[in-house]
Amino acid sequence: MNTRPILWHIEISHYNEKARWALDLKGVGHERRALVPGYHMALALTRGRCYTSPILELDGRRIGDSTAIIRALEERYPQPPLYPAEPVERRRALELEDFFDEELGPYIRRLLFHELRSDRAGAARLAAQVSPPPMKRFPRMSAEYFLAGTALRYGAGSAKAAERARRRVLRALDRLEAELGANDYLVGERFTVADLTAASLFYPLVLPAEGPLRPQLPATFARFREPLKGRRGFRWVEEMFRRHRRRAPSAVPAPPAVAAPGS
Predict the structure, then answer these.
(1) Which tens digit of pLDDT belongs to each residue from 97-149?
(2) 244: how many CB neighbours lie within 10 A of its CB?
(3) What is the DSSP string of 90-116?
(4) Are 110 and 172 in contact, with CB atoms under 8 Å apart?
């Protein structure tokens, strides 16, 4: 099938950035359809198989989950490769992808959403950035609905859960630096799925210039972030975006989709 791939995504999401980066790195021409944060149609699009974005329509299939999307892209568009050819290195890269997916991604999301609850004006500004045109007129209402959804789905309403998330983010940063050692990349001598995953999922903390959005952070999250800016792992994320994050001219945005309730 020669149908152009379609990526259903949320612009601000770090897991969605992981999928966008893989598509752009491989130069895959595709269409992007935005989903409203907190209101997406993942369940409907995947017939109940997946309840979060991103979702990639590829060769007649709808694939949910950023890891599964990269696996499908490696099969369909093998160049440039994100999986190392050497079996031991490939296994290591996939292990690190899984670690950052499970031990960083959910916690950095929970922490940021929790801090947004104490900055309603900031949440409204963010909603105005990422909402489709009809909803931009009601950013405060959109923000309140979004915050209620994230509190329920991601545990962002709990101060204790947020504190645990803060510790997990720091632990993931420690792990990143330990795995890097004196090397430029996490596995071998080139950029792999391990580097792409770690850099993408640290995006909300680092906010590199090449990232999808650079929102004004809640004051509490900005204070958490400030002392980390000098750490090697923080600077490494910036460097990965500088070296490897290129926008593909073939990525065509489309009008935002009509969204259904979800998160």
Answers:
(1) 999 999 999 999 888 878 776 666 665 666 656 655 556 565 565 555 565 55
(2) 16
(3) HHHHHHHHHHHHHHTHHHHHHHHHHHH
(4) no
Q: 2: buried, middle or exposed (CB in 10 Å: 19+, 13-18, 0-12)?
A: exposed
Bridge partners, residue 63, by sequence: 56
Q: How many Å separate Cα 46 from the centre of its chain?
A: 19
User: What are the distances in angstroms from CA 82 to CA 105, 160, 178, 202?
Assistant: 19, 37, 21, 18
What proportions of the chain, in percent to the nearest 5, are helix, strand and coil?
Answer: 55, 10, 35
Residue 181: in which H helix or E strand, if any? none
Residue located via tokens 């601000």: 12
Task: Report the distance separating Cα 42 and Cα 8, nearest Å.
Answer: 9
Q: Could you tell me the sign of the dihedral formed by the alpha carbons of 51, 57, 60, 61, in that order? A: negative
pTM, two decimals, is 0.83
By C-alpha distance, which of 26, 246, 39 is closest to 141? 39
Here the contacts of 183-191 (C-beta below 8 Å, separation 24 or greater) are 186/93, 186/96, 187/84, 187/89, 187/92, 187/93, 187/96, 188/84, 188/86, 188/89, 190/84, 191/82, 191/240, 191/243, 191/244
**Residue type, position 160, single letter:** K
Alpha carbon distance 185, 195 (integer Å): 7
The token pair at 132 is 């489709």
